[in-house]
Design a protein that fits this description.
Two copies of one chain form a homodimer. Chain A has 397 residues and is α/β, with parallel strands linked by helices. The first copy, chain A, folds into two domains: 138 residues, Aspartate Aminotransferase, domain 1 (Alpha-Beta Complex), CATH 3.90.1150; 240 residues, Aspartate Aminotransferase, domain 2 (3-Layer(aba) Sandwich), CATH 3.40.640.10. Helices cover 42% and strands 14% of the residues of chain A. Chain A is built from 14 helices and twelve strands. The first copy, chain A, has a seven-stranded mixed beta sheet with strand order 2-8-7-6-5-3-4, with helices on both faces. A three-stranded antiparallel beta sheet of chain A has the order 9-10-12. The relative contact order of chain A is 0.16.
C-alpha cells in the first residue's frame, strides 16, 4: 500500500486476508462451477459460500437474493432497466447527485423516450423528500437513489424514500456502492427491491459486485446466455473474484463493529486540525448525516487541481471527486446541485479514509495540507493548466 | 492442476506465468485507473499494455479496437444488441449450433420482436453457406457466427461468411471464445466488425473478456456510466483481470507457433487409440475443419452421464458438452442440428486438451475409456438416474 492513500472512496486495496482466500481459486481450484465433476463442484461450493457471506453483509433474507455481477455499474444498469422492463412504466425518479453509473443510464433512457425526474438536494446535500413525494406519478416505474454520496459522503434517508415507493407500489433501487462496508445494511424487511454493491470499495477485488433483488421481485436480465445465477446473469462465473467478494463481506462485517467509530474519530480530528490551521474551508455536508470516512473540503482561493498535483508530488493521494468522472472538465454536478458556485466546486478535494489509515497519517495530512494551502494562497501555486498538459503527455486523458 | 483434466473447452487453469503478472495488481498496484495520481496512473499504464498485447493476439489494426468486458457472454450480448441498435434493422442471421450466450440473446430478441433466422449445418457440423447467402435480406442487421464450436470443435468458414456480410453491408459478429488462443486470428483487413473473446479459455483469469470493435464501426454500449473504455463500457476496470488477459494473450500468442501441431498429434493419437480398442464410436465433425484440441465422441449403447460419473470417480474430468448448458436435460442443440438422434446425442462426451495435457495422459485416457465403455456395454453400468440424484443431493442442480 502507498504510504499516504486517502482515496478509499475511489478504490481500496485488497485486504491480505481476502487475497489469501482467493488464492486457491487462482491456482488449483480452477474448475468451471457449471461442470459436474469434482473440480467443478468445488468451485460451485465456493460460490454458494460466497453468496451466503455476501447475503449476511447485506442483511438479506435469502442467499438467492444475491446475484453476482461484474461490479456496481453493471448492477445499477441491470436494476434500472429491469424495473422499467417489468413495470412497463415510463418515469424514473432519481436524485440530482447520483453517481455517473445511474446518471448516465438515466441519460441514455431519456434518449430512448423515458421521463427522468431529478430530485434536488439542499446546500448540505440532503435529499428533498417533499419533492420526491410530489414527483411520484402513476407512470413512475422506479425510484433510484444512492445510499451515500461518493463525493461528499452524505447519507440519504433511504428508509423514508422507500416508504414513499412502497405506498405507491413503485420499484425501489438503492445504489449502495459507497455505503456497503462503511455502514451496516439490513435489507430484510426493508422497502428495497434492488441494491447495488461493488467489492473493490470494501477491500475486495475489482471486477465483481452484487445486485440484490428482493425475493418475489420481478426481474429481467441485462446479460443473457447460460443458466448461471439462476438465469439472471449469464456468463462463466468469476470464481476467484466472487470468493474475494465473499471473504471481503465476511471480513468487513466484523470490522463494522468498531471501525466506523474509529473512522469518525479520525474524520473529526482531521477536520478540526485543518480548521485550526487555515481559514476559508468549508466541509461539504457538515450538518448532514455523513459517512464516517469522508471529508470533502472546499477551499477559498484554491484550485483543487493545483493542490492535488502538489499532494501527488509528495505521494499523498486524494481526488477532486469521482474517479469515474475524471477526465471531465465540468464542475461536479453534485456540488452544483448543492448550490456551489463553479469556483467553489473547482476548489473541492475529497479525502476518504479506511482501514489502513492511522491517526499519525491524518495528522501528517493536516499539516502538509495546511502548509500547501497557505503556500498556494500566497500566490506560489502553478496554474492548473499544467495538470492537463502533464496527463495528456502521459496519454491518460 | 488435477491429474486428469480433459475439459479445456469448459475452462483452463490460470497459467503460472499469467498469475505472476497479475500479482502486483492484486497487492501494491491497487489504484483506480481513472485516478490521476501516480498510483492510478500505474494502473492505467497496465491497462494500456494489456490492450496492446490483446490487440496483438487478435491481429487487430489498432489497440483501441479492444474493449475490455467481463467475459465472452457480455461481449456477445453487447455486439448483437449494438448492431441492432446502430442498424435499426430487424433480422438476425445466426447458426443453429451457437453457444447459449448467442442463442439465448437471440431468443430474448425474438420476444422483443426481432426476426431470428438460424442457418443449418450438415452431419459434420459444417455451416450451410448457401443457405446463409439466401437468407440475407434488406432487413438483416447482423450475421452472428461462432468461429469454432464449443462442443464439437468444428471451425466455421468465417472468411466466406464475412464476404457475404460485406457484400450486403451487414454487420458481422464472430464469437471467437473457443477459437482465440487455439487458432491464429488476423482481424486487420478482415470482414469482422465485432468479435468476442474470453480470457479463461486460454489460461487467463475468469471474469474478463474482450469485445473487438473494428475502427469506424458504430457502437452502442450495453453498460452505461463512467467514461472507462472511451465511454464504450462503464465501470471501474478489473485491473488484475485485464492484466491477466494481456499476459495470457502474450503467452498464448507465442504458444500458437508450436502448440496447435502438438495438440493435433495428441488428438489423432487419442482417436486412433480409442478406435483400435472399441467399436461403435463416432467422432463428431471428423471430416470437417476442427480445432486441434477437441475430440467429441459418440458411443453406441452408452449413456454419456453414466460414463462421465465413472470417469469422475477416477478423477478424470470430461464433459457432455457445454458447461453453460449443464443442468439442462435436453439433448444438445448442436448434435440435433447435425441430425443426431436423441440417443446418439445422449451418448456424446467431449474431451478437450490443452497446454498441460501430455501424451502419457492421452494414452491413459484411451485405456481407461476403452475399458469403461466395454464394461458398461456388457450391462454393468449404473443407470444415469444416479447422476441427477447425486448432484441434487449436493445442491448443484
Amino acid at each position: 500500500m502507498s504510504p499516504y492513500y486517502f482515496d478509499y472512496n475511489a478504490t481500496t486495496p485488497l485486504a491480505p486476508e481476502v487475497l489469501r482466500e482467493m488464492e486457491p481459486y487462482l491456482t488449483r481450484h480452477f474448475g468451471n462451477p457449471s461442470s459436474f465433476y469434482q473440480l467443478g463442484r468445488a468451485a460451485n461450493r465456493a460460490l454458494r459460500q460466497a453468496r451466503k457471506l455476501t447475503a449476511s453483509l447485506l442483511g438479506a433474507a435469502d442467499d438467492n437474493e444475491i446475484i453476482f455481477t461484474s461490479g456496481g455499474t453493471e448492477s445499477n444498469n441491470t436494476a434500472i432497466r429491469s424495473a422499467l422492463s417489468i413495470s412497463g412504466k415510463k418515469q424514473i425518479l432519481t436524485s440530482a447527485v447520483e453517481h455517473s453509473s445511474v446518471r448516465n443510464v438515466a441519460g441514455q433512457l431519456r434518449k430512448e423516450g423515458y421521463q427522468i425526474t431529478e430530485i434536488g438536494v439542499d446546500a448540505q446535500g440532503r435529499l428533498n423528500l417533499e419533492q420526491l413525494r410530489e414527483a411520484v406519478s402513476d407512470q413512475t416505474a422506479v425510484i433510484s437513489l444512492m445510499m451515500a454520496n461518493n463525493e461528499t459522503g452524505v447519507i440519504f434517508p433511504v428508509e423514508e424514500a422507500g416508504k414513499i415507493a412502497k405506498e405507491k407500489g413503485i420499484f425501489f433501487h438503492v445504489d449502495a456502492v459507497q455505503a456497503a462496508g462503511k455502514i451496516p445494511l439490513h435489507l430484510k424487511d426493508s422497502a428495497v427491491d434492488f441494491l447495488s454493491v461493488s467489492a473493490h470499495k470494501f477491500y475486495g477485488p475489482k471486477g465483481v459486485g452484487v445486485l440484490y433483488v428482493k425475493k418475489g421481485t420481478g426481474f429481467s436480465p441485462l446479460i443473457s446466455g447460460g443458466s448461471q445465477e439462476r438465469g439472471r446473469r449469464a456468463g462463466t462465473e468469476n470464481v476467484p473474484g466472487i470468493v474475494g467478494l465473499g471473504a471481503a463481506s465476511e471480513w468487513i462485517q466484523k470490522e463494522l463493529r468498531e471501525e466506523p467509530a474509529r473512522l469518525k474519530k479520525l474524520q473529526v480530528e482531521f477536520e478540526t486540525a485543518i480548521r485550526s490551521r487555515v481559514s476559508g474551508v468549508t466541509v461539504s455536508g457538515e450538518r448532514a448525516d455523513r459517512l464516517p470516512n469522508t471529508s470533502h473540503l472546499r477551499w477559498e482561493g484554491i484550485e483543487a487541481e493545483t493542490l492535488l498535483i502538489a499532494l501527488d508530488q509528495r505521494e499523498i493521494y486524494a481526488s477532486s471527486g469521482s474517479a469515474c468522472m475524471s477526465g471531465s472538465r465540468r464542475p461536479s454536478h453534485v456540488l452544483k446541485a448543492m448550490g456551489c458556485t463553479d469556483e467553489a466546486a473547482a476548489s473541492a478535494v475529497r479525502f476518504s479514509f479506511g482501514k489502513y489509515t492511522t491517526e499519525k497519517e491524518i495528522q501528517f495530512l493536516a499539516e502538509e495540507l495546511s502548509r500547501l494551502v497557505t503556500h498556494l494562497r500566497s500566490g506560489n501555486g502553478k496554474s492548473h493548466a499544467h495538470f492537463s498538459e502533464r496527463f495528456a503527455k502521459e496519454g491518460v486523458l
